[in-house]
């Protein structure tokens, strides 16, 4: 009955818990409260990305955690603050209060305290959400609001939506006070009265102790006065010691100054006795702005020509019908006489960018002085003078910072500029100026007699024309990404050649695996054979070039000349017979006397080799042809390969071998090679090809690795495209940056039409037949075997007859051949019936 009465009155029933439970529960609550309050105080959002919880700042957590309780403390603090917001700090305070009450004040466990704690924390959360207090704290810690999840939904959404803000605040304050009373068991009014009584008692006690306090203050003042006196004495002693030290320093300075004066007078007297001229320090010249992007006015009439055709005698390739050929004129190339839209350079803008560069470098502790500014067609070069003792590497390390400061897409730093004592910073122009091909063709450098095969390439940053000489290169590699200007460069090179050479002076062999790039030149009379588009026929075309090269060298040896120019400019006895009729026999005898010696010495050494003379019918016919119909002149042969990567995938070994042979030996024979590729990989542009082609042109590429494959150094990856290129001249290790010449498709078609309308194409049928047979897998009787292969076959036959056995490994060991070449020699010997077919592990039969 008593328990029922207690329940009716709303009182808690007596607990049956043991007496030690309150102390244990109190200690536990104190511990939990301390852990939670330390977790909340040291909470930071940067500790939380371990669980991938949204709203955090970093992708990686702090290691080690900044929270005093570690990972667990960070998790507890995050969930408490996420639910209750800033009111979550009330939860550990309430737990500490309950722990102290249970452990030390004899309080009993009851539901009233738990309900009061929940109401106390929850109402505080809702109050913060409704009143929007501590919103900056919530933003800084990336929470929903200062009241957390509970305050946002219960306070803002529910209570404020029902009672508006004022009603919600009144209700929440009332509930908050009720919860505090239920939690602490203290009444606010009674608590205030007790506090007032305590304050009155403290005031009376303080008035009674005023006399004792005054006495203590007087004693403290006496002690302070004594301490101050001692301090003043110490300061006076320090001041006296400092004065003595300063006096000694002054005396030392005076003595030093006297010694310096004496030494200076001694130096002056010595200089008077032995006068010497002292060199002044180098003065930085006054900076200047050079605008080289403007087009040059043409100095020739539109209908004029850069070259006039020279009348030539017959050459080895067919030249009949080319006597009346006329070279193209400038009227086939368009030229805009009006000024470009970018009329000059804004000097104020250029100086502003240069000042930005100098200030940026000085901000990082790099002291430089402003130099010249050179504005080119594509880029502008800003020069700076480093201070004495400054390493230029410190400037290159700030490349990204300079690009950020100048707002440039990409920059290139030349540290230093070759041939100058300045560092160049190259920035792309916003408005690029095209370089028309006609402007380069009208330049004196292109028409100069020093360049045998001039190539109009472009203009450098200083406005100078870049004219290459294919005869001096003697071969050229052009590489770059798609759309960087490689095809336009090839067109400008071919057009430059067409403006100087007629079909009887220079012939083309064009290889176009992509089928679309070289088709516009299909009607040129300069072509030896139609444009080769089948990759399987390219090897045969290159072998014909190798054979033509060997043939020319044999004729050079018979004539006693060293190279292509010597053969074409040799004295011709037939022309000397005409003026004097009486002495032709003597002249003939004089010219015929060295022929047997030359043939017996040079020609026999080249043709026979160490294995004795060759008795094949083809060689005898060739010798007869050379003696009876020796060509008066040879034309240049230019082999253009548009895409090397496709050929290296089809027949890499044969293509690489033939290109290497042409690049190594063909210069003196008047045969030149131009290779282009848009895939500059190490397996395409191999080391053998690069070693034999020193002259290269690189357009924009995607990575520094591709740049190193082309140029053996970085730099092409920083070009801006659209004709911006790096040119490596022959015999030089210095790269030249230039803007490539532009020639439109309409101009190319007009030039090709002009050339093709004057004469019909005359392809060499024998050469074309050889290439066609090579493309269909060989032909018969070894038609696709070059002279070098024939020499190697003779050596292979000698090894086989000596050893009386035939195998690929034997030829590799004895003749030091590669596996591919040795296997090919075995296949040719088998086709000619000299050895038997392979039969597993058995030895081949030998039929010779």
TrEMBL record:
Transmembrane segments: 20-41, 75-102, 114-131, 137-155, 167-186
Family designation: Belongs to the FtsK/SpoIIIE/SftA family.
Compositional bias per record (Basic and acidic residues), positions renumbered to this chain: 215-289, 299-313
Species assigned in the record: Rubritalea spongiae
Membrane topology: Multi-pass membrane protein
Name of the protein in question: DNA translocase FtsK 4TM domain-containing protein
Primary subcellular site in the record, as a coarse category: membrane
Key words of the record: ATP-binding, Cell cycle, Cell division, Cell membrane, Chromosome partition, DNA-binding, Membrane, Nucleotide-binding, Transmembrane, Transmembrane helix
Coiled-coil residues: none
Ligand binding (ATP): 480-487
SMART domains membership: Ftsk_gamma
Annotated segments matching region Disordered: 215-318, 567-597
Top-level taxon in the UniProt lineage: Bacteria
Residue ranges with Acidic residues bias: 576-597
Domain annotation FtsK: ranges: 463-708
Subcellular location: Cell membrane
PROSITE patterns in alphabetical order: FTSK
């Amino acid at each position: 009955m008593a328990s029922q009465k207690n329940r009716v009155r709303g009182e808690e029933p007596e607990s049956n818990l043991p007496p030690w439970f309150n102390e244990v529960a109190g200690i536990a609550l104190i511990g939990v409260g301390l852990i939670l309050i330390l977790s909340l105080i040291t909470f930071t959002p940067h500790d939380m990305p371990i669980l991938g919880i949204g709203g955090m700042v970093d992708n990686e957590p702090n290691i080690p955690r900044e929270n005093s309780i570690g990972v667990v403390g960070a998790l507890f603090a995050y969930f408490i603050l996420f639910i209750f917001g800033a009111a979550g700090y009330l939860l550990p305070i309430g737990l500490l209060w309950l722990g102290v009450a249970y452990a030390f004040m004899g309080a009993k466990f009851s539901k009233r305290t738990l309900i009061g704690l929940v109401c106390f924390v929850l109402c505080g959360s809702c109050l913060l959400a409704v009143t929007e207090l501590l919103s900056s704290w919530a933003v800084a810690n990336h929470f929903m609001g200062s009241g957390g999840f509970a305050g946002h939904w219960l306070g803002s959404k529910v209570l404020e939506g029902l009672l508006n803000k004022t009603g919600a605040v009144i209700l929440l304050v009332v509930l908050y006070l009720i919860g505090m009373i239920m939690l602490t068991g203290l009444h606010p009014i009674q608590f205030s009265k007790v506090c007032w009584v305590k304050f009155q008692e403290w005031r009376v006690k303080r008035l009674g102790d005023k006399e004792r306090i005054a006495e203590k203050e007087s004693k403290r003042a006496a002690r302070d006065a004594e301490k101050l006196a001692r301090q003043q004495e110490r300061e006076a002693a320090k001041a006296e010691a400092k004065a003595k030290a300063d006096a000694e320093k002054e005396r030392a300075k005076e003595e030093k100054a006297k010694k310096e004066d004496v030494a200076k007078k001694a130096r002056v007297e010595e200089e008077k006795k032995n006068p010497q001229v002292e060199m002044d320090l180098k003065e930085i010249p006054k900076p200047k702005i050079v605008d080289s992007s403007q087009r040059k006015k043409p100095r020739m009439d539109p209908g004029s020509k850069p070259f006039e055709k020279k009348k030539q005698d017959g050459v080895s390739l067919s030249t009949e019908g080319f006597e009346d050929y006329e070279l193209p004129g400038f009227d086939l190339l368009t030229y805009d006489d009006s000024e470009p839209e970018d009329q000059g350079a804004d000097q104020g803008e250029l100086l502003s960018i240069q000042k930005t560069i100098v200030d940026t470098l000085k901000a990082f502790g790099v002291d430089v002085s402003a130099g010249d500014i050179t504005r080119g067609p594509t880029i502008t070069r800003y020069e700076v003078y480093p201070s004495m003792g400054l390493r230029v590497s410190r400037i290159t390390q700030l490349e990204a910072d300079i690009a950020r400061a100048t707002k440039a897409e990409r920059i290139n730093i030349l540290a230093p500029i070759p041939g100058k004592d300045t560092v160049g910073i190259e920035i792309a122009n916003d408005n690029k100026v095209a370089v028309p091909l006609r402007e380069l063709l009208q330049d004196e450098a292109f028409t100069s007699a020093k360049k045998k095969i001039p190539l109009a390439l472009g203009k450098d940053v200083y406005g100078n024309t870049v004219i290459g000489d294919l005869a001096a290169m003697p071969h050229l590699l052009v590489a770059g990404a798609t759309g960087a200007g490689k095809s336009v460069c090839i067109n400008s090179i071919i057009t430059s050649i067409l403006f100087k050479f007629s079909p009887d002076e220079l012939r083309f062999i064009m290889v176009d695996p992509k089928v679309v790039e070289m088709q516009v030149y299909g009607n040129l009379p300069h072509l030896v054979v139609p444009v080769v588009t089948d990759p399987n026929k390219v090897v045969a075309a290159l072998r014909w070039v190798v054979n033509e090269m060997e043939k020319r060298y044999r004729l050079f040896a018979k004539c006693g000349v060293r190279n292509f120019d010597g053969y074409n400019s040799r004295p011709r006895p037939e022309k000397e017979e005409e003026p004097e009729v009486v002495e032709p026999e003597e002249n003939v005898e004089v010219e015929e006397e060295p022929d047997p010696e030359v043939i017996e010495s040079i020609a026999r050494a080249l043709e026979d080799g160490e294995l004795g003379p060759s008795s094949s019918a083809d060689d005898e016919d060739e010798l007869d042809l050379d003696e009876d119909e020796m060509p008066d002149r040879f034309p240049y042969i230019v082999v253009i390969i548009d895409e090397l990567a496709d050929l290296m995938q089809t027949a890499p070994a044969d293509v690489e071998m033939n290109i290497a042979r042409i690049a190594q030996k063909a210069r003196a024979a008047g045969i030149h090679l131009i290779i282009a590729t848009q895939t500059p990989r190490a397996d395409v542009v191999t080391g053998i090809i690069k070693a034999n082609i020193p002259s290269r042109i690189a357009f924009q590429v995607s990575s520094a690795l591709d740049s190193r494959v082309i140029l053996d150094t970085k730099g092409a990856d920083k070009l801006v495209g659209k004709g911006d290129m790096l040119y490596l001249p022959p015999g030089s290790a210095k790269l030249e940056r230039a803007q490539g010449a532009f020639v439109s498709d309409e101009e190319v078609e007009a030039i090709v039409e002009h050339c093709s309308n004057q004469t019909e194409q005359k392809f060499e049928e024998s050469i074309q037949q050889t290439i066609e047979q090579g493309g269909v897998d060989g032909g018969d009787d070894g038609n696709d075997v070059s002279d070098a292969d024939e020499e190697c076959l003779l050596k292979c036959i000698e090894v086989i007859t000596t050893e009386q056995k035939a195998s690929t490994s034997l030829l590799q060991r004895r003749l030091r051949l590669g596996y591919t070449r040795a296997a090919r020699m075995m296949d040719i010997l088998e086709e000619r019936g000299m050895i038997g077919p392979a039969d597993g592990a058995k030895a081949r039969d030998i039929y010779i």
